[in-house]
């Protein structure tokens, strides 16, 4: 390239990056508005807030799909690019193409129908009457199929929707992994159900003052290494985390009779926030400073929740802190007791968000199979409740009595979020694969956790996952971090050995 | 107009309104980011937040100055418009013209220099060394003069800058009113200083638990009628209020030795929020649903702070609540004691934000005269400290020992905010004029306040001020609300009679 051409290319790239940064910043601004709405906003603020968020979306959409952006992408792709720049262009191209292929009218209609769907779903759930929600769900399925068709009329619409949340692993991988989980976990859960093992599941019974719980949660975040200069903890009805590498916040919820649930939710959201905080600060504003998609994000939250928070080593460190705060409740509890309580496989839980580490995936698989079939046109909306209940019976051995505790339990479909659910399981599976790799690289990781020394794990995750942002695609990132392709082997080994031991299952130890 | 032409005009207007609403919503989104930054954001979030706010500003500026907006304004002005629509067009035209006349480069330079100015000012203040801040101040003065020149090269640059904060009263009015205040308040303050009256100024001496103070502040907001479904109270280093008619929030600050200051700050910010909440909800997004500028906004905060919060009637209602919370401190205090404490004229206070209702204006006048002369080129930056100190001696009878307590005390100049200060006094003056009018219309207003019945006052303010948004210009609004032109007569009568009585001044009762 002549030096003049190089200057020109460099100017094109720099103007392109300005646009990308503006887009990213508007996106993060929208994120702050979302956080505030969930955590701080008085209820009456909703009408104005919806309009503010929608204005940001509209402006973002216009910038992303503008002729200038399209031309810049074309120009850059036609020239030579460093690997890093090529990654940035790849990510923006994908967003641009998806956004540009869907008519703005359809986007707005989906947004409107979803807004209206929320209270309809809520009422249907309260009245335990799926038929009230069915027409709305039908409309959303239609609209999202139409949406997928605009993006790619030649591919399975569910595949297209799935890629909104996980663009690089492929829906076939998701399907294969979820099928394997079902095949191997259904008998494992059955074996657990039949086990006579007597776990200390009543360790956390009773009422736990929520202020003290919050104090504990702050302590656990301290212990794990949360950076309060770049984060905060608040409560929200549905715990979530949000933000960027300069300001990644965590929410949780406290209830007097579920201290363990609150702690695990806090650790889970900490995992998300830690990923965000590990993104390179100097790349803020471009895909190199942005987290990879849902699978990787969920792998980080599940890694901290399950592999750290539910481990014996963690409780060696943390149990004394709990005892200090609740001496009258836990004075006699051993690390083993807490470990057992934290890893109990519930007998008859129908609710995903209250599920244990093992049965959790059954909840995901049921919804995945149903939403996939709905979008593919292989299942009618009216048949959802029965199919749902049948699958629960088949996979979990329990049958919901009501739609409220069945197919109406989760809000996601009312948002029009089809294709999102599988990433919950894919993330858990990846968490195990990553943690296995970290265990190989970090000597005596359990001892370090028991000592409260989380620096090696943070360093490992930052080095192998966080600092790359969207530099690599999901599959490349996994290969780089673990030396292997994405696989469910580690996860299945892990749950078999863990629950085999806990529940004294001869076939699984 | 033919019906076809009418349809076309109506479509032009409706597209124009879409643009205006988008602009407003982006502005409010920026407001949420600002609130969060002051109240919630962890400190480390600053770099990302600055970029997010700047992205919103850039996008807003582009939309406001776009060719489409210019064409829509031209079209609408060329046609016939209802009074209401003409008001909307007038307001947007003003914003558009100002924004379009200043080169984006200059706007960005001012924004950059102000960002850098803040820490420089802070350091200069800490080290009590004006010379450290002088070069930055000089640069800001230059840039803002340049800014004003772009908007209108033929007018006094201070006048042009002043109109950014108060576009309709005119800088000549401001100058006339402030001069009159100086002439009449300087001797009044002197008389107060010479008075032998013994006020119960020690009523609030001691340490007051800040949690209990907050509880009190919430109670006073309840009593005054703050709508918690559309607002919230938090703390911030510099109390402020922000939001819109669906969500108008208040901040205050608590310090153990200044319970009265915290209460008055809360009531002041409540006044701002109440104005915002009184704006018509159905007009959200356009100038008809937007508050008039700084003078009117400040009139609302000062009305509640001074005419309600510092009145005997208010304390009849409120003192029992204070006593309940601080029985060991205030058990013997009478309403007169509290009234005297709340209206003490301080002997030697040099700090504006800690000033009483009377000497407050001296602080404003000093800064107004200095900033005006700086912008007009009649004063050199290097002479500011001495001129400042001389004026304090002349107007208040006290001379600052240091620049930290003198011309470096306030942050505003480091923001490049020249022309803002006078609206503080103009607002207080307007508060008195409005309250006098309300007193005429509401029978026995004092009794109602003493009973905690604030509905009539809310109704009066909503009817005469709030509901109009930017429908009228400031001067029209004042005439409509009070039947008179803007005048300082009421304010001067009010302070003379109030402080004449309090300090037993023969010449003033």
UniProtKB/TrEMBL annotation, chains A, B:
What is catalyzed by this enzyme? Release of a C-terminal amino acid with broad specificity, except for -Pro
Please give the cofactor(s) recorded in the UniProt entry for this protein: Zn(2+)
Q: Which GO terms describe its molecular function?
A: metallocarboxypeptidase activity; transition metal ion binding
Cofactor binding note: Binds 1 zinc ion per subunit.
* Enzyme class at the top of the EC tree: hydrolase
Entries under InterPro entries matching the protein: Peptidase_M32_Taq
Q: Where does Zn(2+) bind?
A: 268, 272, 298
GO BP terms, alphabetized: proteolysis
Please list the residues that make up the active site: 269
What are the record keywords, sorted? Carboxypeptidase, Hydrolase, Metal-binding, Metalloprotease, Protease, Zinc
Indicate the segments annotated as coiled coil, or none if absent. Answer: none
Q: What is its EC number?
A: 3.4.17.19
Q: What biological function has been recorded for the protein in this entry?
A: Broad specificity carboxypetidase that releases amino acids sequentially from the C-terminus, including neutral, aromatic, polar and basic residues.
Query: What family does this chain come from, according to its entry?
Result: Belongs to the peptidase M32 family.
What is the protein name given in its UniProt record? Answer: Metal-dependent carboxypeptidase
Q: What is the lineage of its organism?
A: Archaea, Methanobacteriati, Methanobacteriota, Stenosarchaea group, Halobacteria
């Amino acid at each position: 390239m002549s030096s003049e051409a190089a200057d020109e290319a460099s100017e094109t790239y720099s103007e392109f990056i300005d646009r990308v940064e503006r887009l990213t910043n508007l996106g993060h601004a929208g994120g702050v508005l979302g956080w505030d709405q969930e955590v701080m906003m008085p209820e009456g603020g909703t009408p104005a807030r919806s309009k503010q968020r929608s204005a940001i979306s509209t402006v973002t959409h216009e910038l992303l799909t503008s002729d200038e952006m399209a031309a810049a992408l074309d120009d850059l792709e036609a020239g030579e690019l460093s690997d890093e720049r090529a990654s940035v262009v790849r990510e923006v191209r994908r967003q641009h193409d998806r956004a540009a292929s869907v008519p703005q009218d359809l986007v707005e209609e989906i947004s409107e129908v979803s807004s209206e769907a929320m209270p309809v779903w809520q009422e249907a759930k309260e009245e335990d009457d799926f038929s009230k929600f069915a027409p709305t769900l039908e409309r959303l399925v239609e609209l999202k199929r139409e949406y997928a068709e605009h993006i790619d009329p030649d591919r399975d619409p569910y595949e297209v929707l799935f890629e909104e949340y996980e663009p690089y692993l492929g829906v076939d991988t998701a399907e294969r992994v979820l099928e394997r989980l079902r095949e191997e976990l259904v008998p494992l859960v059955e074996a657990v159900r039949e086990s006579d093992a007597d776990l200390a599941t009543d360790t956390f019974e009773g009422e736990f003052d929520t202020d003290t719980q919050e104090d504990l949660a702050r302590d656990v975040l301290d212990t794990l290494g949360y950076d309060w200069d770049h984060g905060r903890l608040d409560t929200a009805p549905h715990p979530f985390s949000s933000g960027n590498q300069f300001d990644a916040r965590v929410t949780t919820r406290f209830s007097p009779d579920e201290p363990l649930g609150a702690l695990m939710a806090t650790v889970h959201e900490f995992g998300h926030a830690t990923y965000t905080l590990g993104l390179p600060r100097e790349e803020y504003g471009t895909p190199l400073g942005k987290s990879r998609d849902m699978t990787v994000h969920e792998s980080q939250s599940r890694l901290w929740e399950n592999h750290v928070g539910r481990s014996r080593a963690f409780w060696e460190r943390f149990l004394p802190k709990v005892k200090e705060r609740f001496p009258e409740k836990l004075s006699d509890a051993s690390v083993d007791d807490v470990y057992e309580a934290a890893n109990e496989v519930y007998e008859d839980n129908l609710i995903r968000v209250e599920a244990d580490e093992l049965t959790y995936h059954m909840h995901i698989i049921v919804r995945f199979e149903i939403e996939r079939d709905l979008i593919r046109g292989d299942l009618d909306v009216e048949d959802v409740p029965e199919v749902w209940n049948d699958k629960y019976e088949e996979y979990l051995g329990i049958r919901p009595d009501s739609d409220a505790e069945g197919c109406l339990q989760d809000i996601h479909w009312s948002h029009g979020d089809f294709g999102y659910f599988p990433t919950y399981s894919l993330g858990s599976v990846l968490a195990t694969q990553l943690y296995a790799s970290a265990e190989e690289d970090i000597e005596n990781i359990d001892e370090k956790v028991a000592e409260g020394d989380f620096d090696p794990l943070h360093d490992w995750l930052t080095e192998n996952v966080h600092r790359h942002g969207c530099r690599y695609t999901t599959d490349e990132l996994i290969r780089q971090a673990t030396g292997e392709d994405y696989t469910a082997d580690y996860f299945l080994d892990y749950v078999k050995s863990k629950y085999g031991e806990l529940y004294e299952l001869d076939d699984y130890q």
